[in-house]
Amino acid sequence: MSDTNEMSNTSEQRRQFLKTSVGAAAVAIAPGMLMFDMAHGKTEAVSGKVRWGMLINTANCEDCDKCVKACNKENGLSGGLSPTDSQWIRKVELKDMRTERSLALPMMCQHCAEPPCVDVCPTGASFKRADGIVLVDKHICIGCRYCMMACPYKARSFVHEPLHDQKPDVPRGKGVVESCTMCVQRIDKGLQPACAEACPNKSILFGNLNDPGSEISIKMRTEASTQVRADLGLDTGLRYQGI
Amino acid sequence: MANHSPLRFKNRIFYALVAAGGLVVLMGLYAAHMMEGHGHIITGMNNQIVWGMPHVFAIFLIVSASGVLNVSSIGSVFNKPAYKARAPLAGLLSIAMLAGGLSVLMLDLGRPDRIIVAMTRFNPTSVFAWNIFLYSGMFAAVALYLWTMMEKRMNPWSKPAGLLVFVWRFVLTTGTGVIFSFLVARQAYGTALLPPMFIVMSFAWGMAVFHVAQSSIYEWNEKLLDPYVQKRMKNLMGVLVIAAFYFVAAYHLTNLYFARQTGFERFILLDGGIYPLIFWIGYFLLGNLLPLLLIYHPALGKSRSILSASLLIILGGFSFLYVFIIGGQAFPLSIFPGYQVTSSFGDGAIGLYQPSLPEIMLGMGGVGIAFLITTIGVRVLDFVPHELPKSA
Ligand code: SF4
Ligand code: SF4
């Protein structure tokens, strides 16, 4: 009967299948196994004695965008405002819904001590330097955007288009995520972040949170300041006054 | 040779199907190529809605890939012969959908060329990274399981292998749910209810996909499904749809219970424009009520209406994910509770999203991959359920 024929045919096919599938399975699982071997340690040249932070006084923050302009210029951003353009820093207008009090403030990466973006990043491209600055390694980021989903402050932008005329000390790239770097390239040269320098009212105070004698630490010790969404317990490096 | 067995696809239909599937896959690849060249600017995604249509497709495929294995688990872990005969087909469908879903996820990356980076660098705190591991392990586990079923000598091992798959897929679907559970700052996500919800939804969607595949195979081979088996499977599918709906209802009700979430619920269920529309019409009406009617109404419940019910459940799944993923991001993050906020970056504003052709093509490409693998697998490797001479 053709039934027996059919049977042997089938088992031949099955044997064939076995060979292919074992090969395919090996290819599929290899990366998974490899991942376990990859410890990812980063050796930073920067010191953990420093934790850079900023204290923003909203009382002096007026209707200007000099910090935003300075950031764009320093980091080579286009300054475009479409939903696909990068904005590392933005001015947010707030109105208290009960008292109707209005205020404005600059919003950017809060350089969390417990950054959700770093926790979720599958490759470790999002990382926190020993001095507290949270950065994206442009060469490792695969552009999955999970960090953008995880950031409670909407601090990150994805580069949606090819870039031209980049600044040599601020690497950026199409298809990867970026955000405020606190101007590391300036800090590493002993300068202040561009926004802090540009503010005409000195509303942005930059300094070392770990140094009890620094201006920022003294001010935080003597005046009230708060973290945005302090309830999330992220221990942000940026603090605000007047909200 | 194909004529030997009435259960095999006819040659012509087979080649036509392969050609059609191949075309869809090529379109998807072309879309990915365009996205790689122009950047994501040609998609509807932006800095507010960072995950879009590709993720709806990918997550549907991956979640269903896990759910479809329900059929094999019932067969091998709980020893039900009618399901056992179907276990290989379920395994094939699972591998096919997993491959489709993962391809979409990968090709949607901003830097798909860095996939090796994704596979060699492993951040142990990242749920995403665990998932990469879970997905590749799933391939291996299902392939092993298929082997134990298809190779006579290995048959005794099929039960433990089935158990491994059974456990693995639970972990995998939990992992998919946890991807969202970890997003604590977002109103739509960040609840522990998501992993179980995803697990139960995966059962319902997987069952529906299985039904569609099985009906098509039987139809093209002019075979009739044993009415007893049909009845059992359709009833199970009905129960799973109800269970999934229960979880979705619980998810929204718990959100409503927490005062800070009522704004979000209003948006998703009432005044969020397209999202409530898709939720109520696409998910609730077409994806739940109608299929349940088709399954349980005494005058219906025949094979045609079960096929329609399955297709509707799949449509409901897509609707649910669209609302969940895209609607969930469209609702503004609450960065300054108690304040009304505006900015140039969409603070306090509903995110705008318009799916573009390339991203839909990319998503369809994933479905095409799953279809192609299934079609070829069924034809070449004889995955058609072989009913035992007479079950009882
Ligand atoms: S504000 Fe956002 S991007 Fe910046 S460290 Fe915190 S989570 Fe990361
Ligand atoms: S987009 Fe880049 S930095 Fe963000 S989570 Fe993915 S790999 Fe990490």
Outline of the structure:
The complex is a heterodimer of chains A (243) and B (392). Chain A has 243 residues and is of the alpha+beta class.
Describe it for me?
- The complex is a heterodimer of chains A (243) and B (392).
- Chain A folds into two domains: 1-41; 52-241, Alpha-Beta Plaits (2-Layer Sandwich), CATH 3.30.70.
- Helices cover 30% and strands 16% of the residues of chain A.
- Chain A has helices at 2-37, 66-75, 116-120, 146-150, 184-187, 194-198, 215-222, and strands spanning 52-57, 89-96, 102-108, 126-128, 134-136, 157-158, 177-178, 204-208, 238-241.
- In chain A, the strands form four sheets. Chain A has a three-stranded mixed sheet with strand order 8-1-9. In chain A, strands 2-3 form a two-stranded antiparallel sheet. In chain A, strands 4-5 form a two-stranded antiparallel ribbon.
- In chain A, strand 4 (126-128) and strand 5 form a beta hairpin.
- Mean pLDDT of chain A is 85; it is low at 1-44.
- Chain B is mainly α and 392 residues long.
- Chain B has one domain (13-337, 347-380): Formate dehydrogenase/DMSO reductase fold (Up-down Bundle), CATH 1.20.1630.10.
- Chain B has 14 helices and one strand, in the order αααααααααααααβα.
- In chain B, 56% of the residues are buried.
- Classes of the chains: A alpha+beta (243), B mainly alpha (392).
- At the A-B interface, helix 1, strand 2, helix 3, helix 4 and strand 6 of A face helix 6, helix 7 and strand 1 of B.
- Strand 2 of chain A pairs antiparallel with strand 1 (339-343) of chain B.
- The complex binds iron/sulfur cluster (2 copies).
- One iron/sulfur cluster (SF4) is lined by residues 120-123, 125-126, 136, 141-147, 176-177 of chain A.
